[in-house]
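TA notes, week 10

Several of you asked for a full example with nothing omitted. So below is the full record: structure tokens for the whole chain, then the designed sequence directly under it. When grading your own attempts, check the secondary structure regions first.
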């Protein structure tokens, strides 16, 4: 089974994944601290502290609670799984994320084994990276209580990040498997071939510099974990809020040319790298906006830097346009509920239309990165929104966003033609694009 494109599954990682409806029987999180006496000073904030270290089975985590409790509910989320986790504290059970104990306790310990398989839209809570492990920190959060995750590396090992491991992916493992590159760190064991690692490093270095220049923003220095995965997806990638990116290749396909080919890896790495800038922080932003933004930026930057030819780039756009046309039919993008590959296909198409409109309408002074500069600037005050996209684009883009019905695709083809691009047939969606390289 192949993943249709990079990070098909819920990337970028967000620590605030949508929670399902509350369980019918209310569970108690950490029991509240005793009510303060009238003359008491302001009580200290209740914080759960979780210490994590490597262990033969994967990792161990000790939870220390601010007050005795019989029940502790781990953060409800459909984006994580914990079914390989076990309690090692006598009398303490862990079932469906609920820790229970007959006696009030302030401390309990769990074993975290690596997730046995990848599951669509779910982050592995723990996966091996060489001789180390990668933890998805948000899986350790306690419902309703501030939780701090502290990594405890063994001698000769490192923790990345050193603080706030609850924000996203975190690496715990041998320092010798960490390589400092230009503007990033890479972590991999000897299960990753030197040729693949060299391609990932080169593409990451080049694309980070490129995005920084185009977006006029410094960005964050990421750590890229490269690992083999149990499958069933041939590859998967997730960027996360901790600036740690995980790229995983199914071991059985590691030596197959299509998954590790430089052109493929170029786009895979560049997609994840763009999420360091465009990961949304506003709830309700549709996935096709940030996923399409990352995928389109990956294609454009790969063409601009020579990792893809112009023809290869246009062929990829045409494929996305064709699939989006199939996915949307006569529906508008904002009303269609897309899933899986549809999110990427229509997200890329939206970005291409917006880019064509921006360049055509500004005699080449604006382009896709100018749109993203506007979005990111608007987002500085708490996250960009769909309204910010509308403000940064024009009526041609609105034809894809909002128009519906049988005239929409022909109308869109006519509108992009006015900006010098061509969709030769809206149904078959073969396009001819002007040069993909950005305007500056
Ligand atoms: Zn993505």
């Amino acid at each position: 089974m192949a993943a249709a494109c990079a990070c098909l599954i819920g990337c970028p990682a967000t620590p605030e994944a949508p929670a399902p409806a509350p369980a019918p029987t209310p569970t108690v999180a950490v029991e509240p601290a005793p009510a303060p006496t009238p003359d008491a000073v302001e009580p200290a904030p209740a914080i759960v502290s979780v210490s994590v270290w490597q262990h033969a089975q994967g990792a161990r985590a000790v939870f220390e609670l601010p007050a005795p409790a019989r029940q502790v509910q781990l953060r409800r989320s459909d984006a994580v799984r914990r079914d390989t986790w076990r309690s090692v504290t006598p009398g303490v059970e862990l079932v469906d994320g609920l820790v229970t104990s007959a006696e009030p306790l302030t401390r309990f310990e769990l074993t975290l084994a690596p997730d046995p398989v990848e599951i669509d839209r779910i982050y592995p809570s723990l996966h091996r990276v060489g001789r180390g492990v990668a933890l998805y920190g948000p899986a350790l959060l306690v419902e309703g209580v501030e939780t701090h995750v502290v990594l405890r590396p063994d001698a000769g090992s490192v923790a990345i990040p050193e603080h706030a491991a609850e924000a996203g992916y975190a690496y715990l493992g041998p320092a010798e498997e960490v390589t400092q590159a230009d503007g990033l760190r890479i972590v991999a064991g000897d299960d990753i071939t030197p040729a693949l690692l060299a391609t990932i490093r080169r593409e990451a270095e080049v694309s980070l510099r490129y995005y920084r220049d185009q977006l006029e923003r410094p960005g964050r220095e990421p750590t890229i974990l490269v690992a083999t995965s149990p499958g069933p997806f041939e590859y998967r990638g997730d960027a996360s809020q901790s600036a740690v990116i995980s790229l995983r290749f199914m071991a059985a396909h590691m030596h197959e040319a299509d998954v590790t080919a430089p052109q493929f890896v170029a786009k895979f790495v560049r997609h994840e790298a763009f999420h360091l800038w465009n990961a949304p922080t506003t709830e309700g932003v549709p996935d096709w906006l940030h996923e399409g933004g990352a995928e389109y930026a990956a294609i454009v930057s790969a063409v601009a830097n020579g990792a893809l030819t112009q023809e290869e780039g246009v062929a990829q756009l045409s494929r996305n346009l064709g699939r989006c046309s199939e996915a949307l039919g006569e529906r508008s993008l904002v009303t269609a509920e897309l899933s899986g590959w549809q999110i990427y296909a229509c997200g890329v198409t939206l970005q291409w239309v917006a880019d064509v409109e921006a360049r055509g309408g500004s005699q080449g002074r604006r382009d896709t990165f100018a749109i993203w500069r506007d979005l990111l600037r608007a987002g500085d005050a708490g996250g960009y929104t769909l309204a910010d996209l509308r403000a940064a684009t024009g009526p041609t883009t609105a034809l894809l966003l909002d128009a519906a019905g049988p005239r929409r695709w022909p109308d869109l083809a006519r509108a992009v033609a006015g900006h010098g691009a061509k969709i030769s047939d809206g149904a078959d969606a073969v396009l001819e694009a002007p040069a993909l390289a950005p305007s500056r």
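Residues 80 and 122 are 5 Å apart (CA to CA). Use that as a sanity check on your answer.
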